[in-house]
Amino acid sequence: MRHRKPESNGNALSFSFTVLHRVDMMEPLTRIAQHFAASLQAKQRTLDAMGPRIVQTAELLAERLRQGNKILVCGNGGSAADAQHFAAELVNRFEIERPGLAAIALTTDSSALTSIANDYAFEQIFARQVRALGRPGDVLLAISTSGNSPNVLTAMAAARELGLSTVALTGRDGGRMAGQLGKGDIEIRAAAAATARVQETHILIIHCLCDLVDHQLFGEEEPS
Description:
Elements: H1 10-66, E1 71-74, H2 78-91, E2 103-105, H3 110-119, H4 127-133, E3 139-143, H5 150-162, E4 165-170, H6 175-179, E5 186-189, H7 195-218
Parallel strand pairs: 1-2, 1-3, 3-4, 4-5
């Protein structure tokens, strides 16, 4: 009597691997969904609480730019990247063809940053530039997810001394920056505690400001 050769269990192994792979994928996908949900929630809460202030800030920036003033921008780490992003959108363009707008990120000149930090202190890297470049009527956009960055706080103090207006882009409870605002200054606070959520909300706020400034200075149609 001929014995049948046992069937290969290759299909069973392949099925098991596929099931395990799908199970393994569930956790990363769930984490991604949680990130998206938290980001959307933070942005909606910020819109509800800060929408009018974003409009107010855009009006201030547009008016100062119309008067021939400029915007200085500062921040650390991810906020430094946001500062450069905002300045680039103004100097170059956002979504319409238009003339460049006067904005300077105080985070880009490595020689100035390192010489000031070396000769004075890291807390002075932005304040020293504000005193050199700022003029009455200019605006300082100060960005800090915690609201407690020492070098941003000293920049705000220098701006106040020189007659600049300050827009503070913060998160969490606003930190010390919220308590250092003067008359005519504005705080836009991201309604989130996690740094990542604050940063994600900040970049959306920055894009809203760029859009509103363009709209107020150049209207609905693209300028010729």
